[in-house]
Design brief:
Radius of gyration: 18 Å
Number of domains: 1
Oligomer: single chain
Number of strands: 0
Largest sheet: none
Distance between the termini: 55 Å
Number of helices: 4
Order of helices and strands: HHHH
Strand content: under 5%
Length: 76
Amino acid sequence: MIGYFTIAALVFSFVSHDFIKDKDARKDDLGAWFFITFAALIWPLTLPNMVRTVVATGLNSHRSQEKQSLPEASRA
């Protein structure tokens, strides 16, 4: 049980950090904070999707950097 809530706290901190960084999000919206808390509590469902999104974003960024660094002759 302690492990479950430890991971839930980590997920909450990860999601709330991204929420706070979002300049367009209203920080005083109570519904948004309830949703973040709910998403953290059901972390066995939400965490795999978050990890997949972060990995996919990292791979796409890596691939675009790779394409930019290739010389023109090797792109064809």
